[in-house]
Amino acid sequence: MRYEHFIKDPVHGYIGITELEKCFIDTYSFQRLRRILQLPTSVYVYPGATHTRFIHSIGSMHVADVFISSTLDKIALSKQEDRDSIRQFIRLVMLLHDVGHGPYSHTFEEAVLYNEGVNHEIMGSEILRKDPEAAMCLERFGKDLSFGVEEISRAIRSRSPSEWPLLRISGLEEDLEKSLYYIIKGSFSADIIDYLIRDSYYTGAGYGSGIDWVRIAYNTNLTRRGLAINEKALDALENLLISRYHMFMSVYYHKTSRAIDIMISEVLREAYEKKDLDPYLRDPLKYIELDEYSIYGIDTIRNHPYTRDLMKRKLRFASVEEYRLSLPRTIRLLRAILDKRYLNTLLRERLPRELSDKVFIDTPLLPLNPMFHSEEILIQRSDKSLFTRRIDQTTFGELSESVVIVRLYIDRDYLDKKEEAQRVFREILRVDEVRSFF
Three-class SS of residue 23? Predict the structure, then answer.
């Protein structure tokens, strides 16, 4: 673990890079991330948000290293090479966790990849397995390491600690090793920390600037039950959760960003239905030819009227009404009632025919905990005893389990009909009843 190179990052300062990491960074599949924006729809609202998946991946690797270094300091490993091997493994997994993103990132994932039964993590896993450059990097610079491409691929696509690949490090119990999963994909993972701070910085939103992530990292411990945070650092964790909420509301779920997302989704969906994307989806090494520049070489995408509109930042849809509803953990039925497809079916049934395809409802849902399979965080007291706490329980009382934004959009050419659309929208939601209930 010797840094041979350094990258100057405006968010984290100097980031050290090993020879093995530089080799992976220089591969075609990773360099492609320079052409994938981190916030491809938010950039239409926040012009400074031109940062890419490339620098986010490097920044996430740096954050993950602070976590793994701190946790390993508290474990007695007999061999320095074992410690170095674990650190290098975690750093590489975090570095490569986004190589499977397509153009427009999560928009592409929802409009295209989900139809194929995969996500960007599965695509990234397959890219690494098939990429000869990845194998070459490990053969040249990683011969003495206790892992290979297969272990990195499995870690990237893992969905729970039970799927985490074990390196079988002497002196590190199996349950402790599986807890490494949470550094990559936990409720306060390196990925979440970097994108909150980085996106806040580049948009100018500011909500992520006060996150004391180093305090969180220094106060986490590997345990047999998972990754635990020291009780004294709960204030920093709570601040992270609140910052995440505000970033989603102000940036990721901004009404204009969502309108653009819907337009791009329609363009991608049409290309997918016409099978224009099939050659890229069938071959991982062909897939990495797709980026936010090359995709305009596909005729369906280049010639779509929405594409031409976006070139001029001409938004097809306008948000004309919005409600934010807090969903307590006990309210499960309302989550089903607020299903977007169901609401849009009701909307179309009650609107005049000429309006039925010109108006739609969007219902982005923000869960307090991004890790859906776990509703609790593990906390360690000063006497080393462990206890769990629901993630929605804070010093200030209980937070909502999630918040849903219910928005009504209308085609701008039909804005003179918005009052009729709003009337039906309110009728469907029965706004007065819903608001008084909460």
Answer: helix
How many Å apart are CA 386 and CA 231, to the nearest integer? 10
Q: Give residue 372's pLDDT.
A: 47
Q: Where are the beta strands (DSSP E) in 294-340?
A: 317-327
Q: Helix or strand or coil: residue 312?
A: coil
Length of the chain: 438
State the Cα–Cα distance between residues 221 and 231, nearest whole angstrom. Answer: 11
pLDDT tens string 392-409: 777 777 777 778 889 999
Tally DSSP H helices, then E strands, for the chain.
22, 12
Q: What string of DSSP letters covers 42-57?
A: GGGTSTT---BHHHHH
Residue 388: beta bridge partners? 378
Assigned token pair, 277: 């994307």
Residue with tokens 């797709």: 290
Helix (H, G, I), strand (E, B) or coil at 324: strand
Work out the angle at residue 18's Cα, subtended by the Cα atoms of residues 15 and 21, and round it to the nearest 5 degrees.
Answer: 95
Q: What is the dihedral of CA 343, 426, 331, 244, to 10 degrees?
A: 90
Residue type, position 326, single letter: S
User: Residue 330: is its pLDDT beyond 80?
Assistant: no
Helix/strand/coil for 321: strand
DSSP string computed for 115-175: GGT--HHHHHHHHHHH-HHHHHHHHHH-TTSS--HHHHHHHHH--SGGGSPP---TT--HH
Q: What is the structure's pLDDT at 436?
A: 37
Which residues sit opposite 16 in a β-bridge?
Answer: 6
* Tens digit of each residue's pLDDT (9 = 90 or more) over 5-14: 999 999 999 9
Q: What is the DSSP code string of 314-371? A: --SEEEEEEEEEEE-TT--HHHHHT-HHHHHHHHHHHS-GGGTTTEEEE--EEES-S-
H or E stretch at 196: helix 190-203
Residue 328's pLDDT is: 66
In the block, which residue shows the tokens 């804070």?
394
Q: How far apart are CA 281 and CA 284, in angstroms?
A: 7
Cα dihedral 92→93→94→98 (10° resolution): 110
pTM of the model: 0.93
How many CA within 13 A on the CB side of residue 152? 33
Beta bridge partners of 392: none
The answer to whether 161 touches 178, Cβ cutoff 8 Å, is: yes
